[in-house]
Amino acid sequence: MLGKMGMKPYEIYEIRDLTHGEPDSFKISSFKLRPGDGKNFSFRPGQFVSLFLKPEDKLFRSYSIASSPLEDHLELMIEMINGRFTSQLAKMNEGDTIYVSEPRGAFVFEESSSAGSIF
Question: How far apart (Å, rounded) are the C-alpha atoms in residues 35 and 74?
């Protein structure tokens, strides 16, 4: 699977904080992931990662990164739609292990082009 997607080997992450949605967004779960090796996860705003429950799985889903690159964790906000992947993801607990691809995507924030932007 890695070769077909052109990805580097997966990083192993531990689910550190698992929050299920507030009453106004009960289907949304927040997954805060911390690398198993303790290193910070490096990415650019606007990139995404793919999640795998097992490294040999062909079943994966890609999610936009919701956290800042300055934080010590990787946060994903996921709508739990009870699909093939999210139904398994919903069973995970804090402290469980998950596999994450390297960050990908070219739709990123470029500081040099922010002149005249609303940021």
Answer: 9
Bridge-based pairing state of the strands 11-20 and 97-100: antiparallel
Q: Which residue type occupies 94? A: E
Single-letter residue type at 4: K
Q: pTM of the prediction?
A: 0.77
The set of residues, in sequence order, having a beta carbon less than 8 Å from that of 83 and lying 6+ positions away, is none
**Do the beta carbons of residue 53 and residue 98 sit within 8 Å?**
yes
Predicted confidence (pLDDT) per residue in 71-105, tens digit: 888 899 999 999 999 999 988 888 888 888 888 88
Closest alpha carbon to 89 in 55, 58, 41, 51: 51
d(CA 32, CA 66): 10
Please, which residues have CB within 8 angstroms of residue 16's CB and are 6 or more apart in sequence? 32, 33, 34, 73, 94
Quick one: residue 34, left, alpha or beta (phi over 0 = left, psi -120 to 50 = alpha)? Answer: beta
Beta bridge partners of 78: 29
